[in-house]
Specification:
The model has no long low-confidence stretch (mean pLDDT about 95). The chain is mostly beta strands and about 170 residues long. It has strands at about 1-5, 10, 20-25, 30-35, 45-50, 55-60, 65-70, 80-90, 100-105, 110-115, 130, 140-145, 155-160. The strands form four sheets. It has a four-stranded antiparallel beta sheet, with no helix packed on it. A four-stranded antiparallel beta sheet has the order 7-8-9-10, with no helix packed on it. It has a three-stranded antiparallel beta sheet with strand order 11-12-13, with no helix packed on it. The chain has one domain (about 1-160). The chain is built from no helices and 13 strands.
């Protein structure tokens, strides 16, 4: 649910909220970015909170597969971009599975692969939770790095050149 600044009106963004985050789109508007597992294609999408316009970014149901993901939209100094970390490759591995990537907030977005996280799922805290910094130059993520341990989890940092994501 998104509310007007004075709480005089509200708008439902998704029937059932999944992993999501807020971001700033390329126009400087606030955007809600999430995944809709109830849609036919399991769309990752954004909703412009000012206009209510929903834009599908890409499908997560690729060739009968499915995944789960986390979203980080905190790169406020790089409007129009988010970072996603996916885990799980139900139904076979596809291009988006088990990796961290930057996604442009527009229809038919640019997508830049940043890293494979090598996490082995063993409960919620072993899922990779990538988080981007304000300038979109660093991404932190967690991984148990090819082990099934739910306690031996380390943090890793990806450095992104300032002019790499355009």
């Amino acid at each position: 649910m998104a509310y007007a600044r004075d709480f005089s009106s509200s708008r439902k963004l998704l029937q059932k909220s999944e992993h999501s985050d807020l971001a700033i789109d390329a126009n400087g508007d606030d955007a809600y970015v999430s995944v809709d597992y109830q849609s036919d294609k399991g769309d990752v999408f954004m909703v412009n909170l000012r206009t209510g316009e929903r834009t599908a970014l890409f499908s997560t149901y690729v060739s009968g597969s499915a995944t789960a993901l986390h979203i980080s939209g905190k790169g406020f100094n790089k409007p129009g971009w988010v970072v996603l970390s996916t885990y799980g490759d139900y139904g076979g591995t596809q291009w988006l599975h088990k990796k961290i990537f930057a996604v442009q907030l527009k229809a038919s977005p640019k997508i830049y692969n940043l890293a494979f996280h090598h996490a082995v799922e063993n409960g919620y805290w072993t899922e990779p939770h990538a988080s981007v910094n304000r300038d979109f130059t660093k991404v932190l993520f967690n991984s148990n790095w090819n082990s099934s341990s739910d306690t031996d989890i380390d943090a890793y940092m990806i450095e992104i050149p300032a002019d790499a994501v355009k």
